[in-house]
Design a protein that fits this description.
The chain is of the alpha+beta class and about 650 residues long. It has 5 domains: about 150 residues, Rossmann fold, CATH 3.40.50.2300; about 100 residues, 2-Layer Sandwich (Beta-Lactamase); about 160 residues, 2-Layer Sandwich (Beta-Lactamase), CATH 3.30.450.40; about 150 residues, no CATH class; about 60 residues, Orthogonal Bundle (Arc Repressor Mutant, subunit A), CATH 1.10.10. Helix content is about 40%, strand content about 30%. It is built from 22 helices and 24 strands. It has an 8-stranded antiparallel β-sheet, with helices on both faces. Strands 1, 2, 3, 4, 5 and 6 form a 6-stranded mixed β-sheet that branches. α3 packs parallel to α4, α12 packs antiparallel against α16 and α20 crosses α22. It is elongated and about 140 Å long.
Length: about 650
Amino acid sequence: MTESSTDRGMPSLESINVLLVDDNERWAAFTAEELERREPSLRVELVLGANEALSALREGEQDCLVVDYRMPETNGIELVERVRESRPELPIVLVTGEGSETVAARAIDAGVTDYLPKDPTIDQTPVLAGKIRNAVERRALRRAIEDSERRYRTVIEQSRDAIVILRKGWILFCNERFAEFTDSSVDNLVDTRFAEAFVHEADRERFRGIDSEVLTNGVHRFRLVTGDGTVAHCEYTGRELVYDGIPATMLSIRDVTAKRLKEVRHRRERNLNRHLQRALVASRSREELEDAVVSELAEQGYDLVWFGAAVDGRLQPRAVAGDRRYVDEVELSLERTEHECEPSVWATRTGTARVIADLEALFPTDWRNLALERGFRTAIALPVGYEDIIYGVLAAYRTEPHSIDDAERDFLRDLAATVGYAIHHMDARKALTADHGIEARIELRDGPHYLSEVVAAVKTSEPELVVHSTYSNGDGELVQYATLCGGSTEEFRDAAAAHPAVREVVPVRRAEADSFQLMVDGETPESTLAPFNARVRSTQVTADRAVLRIELPSRENFDALVDHLEDRYGRVSVLSLVEREWTDRGGALTVDTRALTEKQAVALEAAYRHGYFEQPRRSSATDIADVLGISHSTYLQHLRAAQQKVFTAFYGD
């Protein structure tokens, strides 16, 4: 049988293969010929008995069986029963001269598709042809419907969405995805009232109020409650359809709980960021900033938040928000004890973030048991610092296990970095305005300074180099100004130019000494101390050592600074450490160049070192701009901005 589609969407049969079974060869041949003449789509094969029919059915692809009731071996109904065992879907028309109701009833029970009583007085070929075509068309239509339903069900079952078909609020059908979603089975869900069983009570009235027109336009939301009481945020679309011949409504439901939580998190993070930015601007001291940070985090759903700093071998709480009983009672020693795995102690000792998804999963310890007693299940602690300085640790705790995911951890890590930078900025501002501090002389032994290698290459006399200042030019290079005392300037210039760390050597001639501007790739001991808010007043460099004269606003970061130098440059000796009053300078006006940007500081010192302010000028602005590798106008812009800041510091209110 060949099928094609008509405009009505029903199959059209172009060729129908018919097997005609009748022991009356003459009548059968006549009937076969007449059927093909009257209905060109029919192709009739003739057999004269039941066994021939069974053999033909095994070997051929018949679309319809026409069988006479009376045959030598058996009757037509018995043949139908046998055929139905292997070909249950084959259309069968029974033709019989027995017109009794008993035969008709038996034929129907046997599974015939249609029934034609013989009438020898009339030509029944047209009627038989019509019954054959109708039977085959009904079978083709049924097959098309079954295929469509099978494809439809396959699509539904394989859909990533949960599918539910409702009629008057009752579930007629659902796919396995919905069954999994609700922790049930398809069989148990059919004939269940959907809204009452699964829609959150706060959303039921709105859910029922959505009519068919609204339903089919756009995406709608509701909260779905599963069998164990879990609430899932869902989006659904719907459409009207005919199911089992009766109008129904199909809902396609998607769990968007993760999306919803992400939206809530982003909204919370935006609010938190907004409040924290205000705190960063408004806070006039480190204490105010730390209080603001822990308070804002506590407002955003953390049950305990605190900020601590290392003092004399233990963590000292500086700011606490939420249930602080745990912080007051827990042992926070930084020594190697059983407390070293406490999150805040861990983060302080290792300098890395520590996240514990569920405290109950840990082996019992005093701090863990105490935290559980206070109801905490999740904990996170993050070091707060800037570059190589650790200012303290930020710790947060929640009562729900697994309540800090990767996204939130990344957010808190960024927050800790921001707070670290803010504290550094406050310390820098404090250093700029401090009227006292400490002055230290620190010696680097065994020639770790790159300039020790340069000085060692100068063979005449016993030269010493004094580094006056170090700046970053903003392009990844350092600018250092240095004066050579003793030794050959030519040898020094050649040795410096040959050193791999030095990109360029520019002589800066002054009246009594030989000075140079050095363009350096990479870090130097002086440049690495910027995060400590240290001012390197000068560095005396010989072939075997370098002595840095450093000013700091307090002793708070001094030990960390010394450790930092030892880590990078080996053996370090503190030659002197004294407290100083910065205002005691004979009444002279002073200005701290750290008030300038890096490029402004470079421009100002280059002007001074290259004799721009002398009369007559030893170097013009164009000359200095060429040395710095920038345009004349850009150099003047940086220089004038630097001068304005210096004059403001001198004469401003």
